[in-house]
């Protein structure tokens, strides 16, 4: 009889809890999250200073270690070892839900590969919170996380979303919010948008307007705190779009032919192969 592979069973191993924590207001913590943090053997935190403040507020004395983008791969084996020995570990980010534009995905994947139970403890999420108060309808949306610092990469990202009809949500720092809005309005046009600044904190602010209006407002004041930006989707119907114009605009934005074909096939539901032929024809000057 062949040997069966060794499997770490839930009853023999610990549990990794992925715990959402407040965006700013510490009262937004859930009762279940407090229970998990208090009963855990270990808390792995993206920012121990922020987490220590939360734990102190609620009298929680659980052992705390750091787990951030610079040490996640190095520290994960140690955490997996403790999980295999039966420890209950809580994973938290600086704010909001771990693994969403924050560290945590690598640890979760390694825990699952080791047969460890991974359980979510849901709660605050910045993209969802911003969408909920924006008034912009979103049965679905495109989430970009933090935009790249490079102007050319930002331009490329927005170019691929020019005709996307779903709302777009992203995070931005106060140092780069003005530039990002300027790039967005240049490429996406002056569509409706929403800014959420310092959500749930003492100086939280929310603004709804056109991209141009919001860009002008940001330009006239000193931006402080992190922003969540929501931009409404494109309104044009496929039948109202001049395909050659779309292709030319995307090529002018610096996208290669293959990427233009991919983006338009995705957003317009057209054949990628036929689009690529048309793009090459336009580049050669053969398209009439």
From TrEMBL:
Q: Which InterPro entries match?
A: 4pyrrol_Mease, 4pyrrol_Methylase_sf, 4pyrrole_Mease_sub1, 4pyrrole_Mease_sub2, rRNA_ssu_MeTfrase_I
E.C. number(s) listed in UniProt:
2.1.1.198
Against Pfam families, the record matches this protein to: TP_methylase (PF00590)
Top-level enzyme category: transferase
Q: Which UniProt keywords apply?
A: Cytoplasm, Methyltransferase, rRNA processing, S-adenosyl-L-methionine, Transferase
Q: Which SUPFAM superfamilies match?
A: Tetrapyrrole methylase (SSF53790)
What subcellular locations does the record give? Answer: Cytoplasm
According to the UniProt entry, its GO molecular function terms are: rRNA (cytosine-2'-O-)-methyltransferase activity
Q: Which reaction does it catalyse?
A: cytidine(1402) in 16S rRNA + S-adenosyl-L-methionine = 2'-O-methylcytidine(1402) in 16S rRNA + S-adenosyl-L-homocysteine + H(+)
Q: Which residues form a coiled coil?
A: none
Give GO cellular component annotations, separated by semicolons. Answer: cytoplasm
Q: Which domain of life, per UniProt? A: Bacteria
Q: What does this protein do?
A: Catalyzes the 2'-O-methylation of the ribose of cytidine 1402 (C1402) in 16S rRNA.
In terms of PANTHER family, this protein maps to: RIBOSOMAL RNA SMALL SUBUNIT METHYLTRANSFERASE I
Q: Per the similarity annotation, which family is this?
A: Belongs to the methyltransferase superfamily. RsmI family.
* Protein name as annotated: Ribosomal RNA small subunit methyltransferase I
Gene that specifies this protein:
rsmI
């Amino acid at each position: 009889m062949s040997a069966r592979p060794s499997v770490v069973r839930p009853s023999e191993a610990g549990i990794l809890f992925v715990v959402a924590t407040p965006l700013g207001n510490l009262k937004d913590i859930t009762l279940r999250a407090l229970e998990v943090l208090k009963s855990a053997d270990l808390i792995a935190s993206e920012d121990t200073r922020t987490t220590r403040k939360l734990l102190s507020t609620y009298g929680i004395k659980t052992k705390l270690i750091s787990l951030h983008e610079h040490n996640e791969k190095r520290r994960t084996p140690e955490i997996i070892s403790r999980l295999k020995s039966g420890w209950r570990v809580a994973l938290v980010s600086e704010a909001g839900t771990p693994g969403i534009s924050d560290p945590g995905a690598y640890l979760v994947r390694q825990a699952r590969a080791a047969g460890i139970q991974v359980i979510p403890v849901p709660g605050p999420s910045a993209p969802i919170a911003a969408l909920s108060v924006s008034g912009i309808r979103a049965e679905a949306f495109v989430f970009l996380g933090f935009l790249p610092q490079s102007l050319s990469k930002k331009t490329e990202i927005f170019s691929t979303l020019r005709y996307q009809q779903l709302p777009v949500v992203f995070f931005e720092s106060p140092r780069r919010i003005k530039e990002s809005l300027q790039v967005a309005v240049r490429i996406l046009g002056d569509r409706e948008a929403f800014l959420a600044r310092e959500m749930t904190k003492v100086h939280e602010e929310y603004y709804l307007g056109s991209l141009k209006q919001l860009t002008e407002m940001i330009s006239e004041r000193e931006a402080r705190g992190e922003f969540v930006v929501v931009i409404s989707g494109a309104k044009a119907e496929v039948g109202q779009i001049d395909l050659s114009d779309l292709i030319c605009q995307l090529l002018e934005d610096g996208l290669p032919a293959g990427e233009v074909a991919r983006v338009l096939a995705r957003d317009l539901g057209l054949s990628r192969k036929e689009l690529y032929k048309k793009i090459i024809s336009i580049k050669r000057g053969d398209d009439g």
